[in-house]
From TrEMBL:
One of its GO terms (biological process) is monocarboxylic acid metabolic process. Residues 6-191 form the Ketoreductase domain. Pfam families: adh_short. It comes from the Bacteria. This is NAD(P)-dependent dehydrogenase (Short-subunit alcohol dehydrogenase family). Belongs to the short-chain dehydrogenases/reductases (SDR) family. InterPro entries: KR_dom, NAD(P)-bd_dom_sf, Sc_DH/Rdtase_CS, SDR, SDR_fam.
Amino acid sequence: MKEILRTALITGGTKGIGLGVAEMLIKEGYKVAITGRNAETVEAAAAQLNQLQEGAALGVVADVRNFDSQQAAVNQVLEKWGRLDVLVANAGVGHFAPIETLTLEQWQETIDINLTGVFYSTKASLAALTASKGYLITIASLAGTNFFANGSAYNASKFGLVGFTQAVMMDVRSAGIKATTIMPGSVATHFNNHEPSEKDAWKIQPEDIGQIVVDLLKMNPRTLPSKIEVRPTMPK
């Protein structure tokens, strides 16, 4: 019997969690498209992924803040592979400041990327995911249920993302689409201009989130973990 081609689209897939998820999916036999705003970075990440399996990765320049850009990204996946089985809405940004100094631009960018961007990616993918009875996975944060000082923009975006995903899960499950939000704590990534190093060994690693995605996709279709909180075992 011919194996069914499985495909995934990962927003913000050029580094960190997105790249870690892409690597794990390729190792599982998926074809993976990754998006980012910088053409050079996208090309370099796709080349790195194609070293795992030649022809398994497609780099797409796209901005989650623009719906037409997200529709074009989905169309590129469909043109290349004919189907879309998984959307991992991962692109995100963090601005952390007290409300007195948080700028209008920082607020807007955080909401546009972390929340509206996921809406755009999901909306653009919905027809393809309906056709494949696919899976929507959003990457939220423990900040989606735990508020903290200097986090007004980030908390608002991630609280909203958790609520968005759970509501969408109820909207689309009758069409055979599954939806899950993953809420990591500290992850060893470049997020917020951090440079990962050996000092981050205690943190969740990007491939750990990739493993969770793989495990979700392998789960019996009758069961849906709709919200997953993930923490380092031994936080500093």
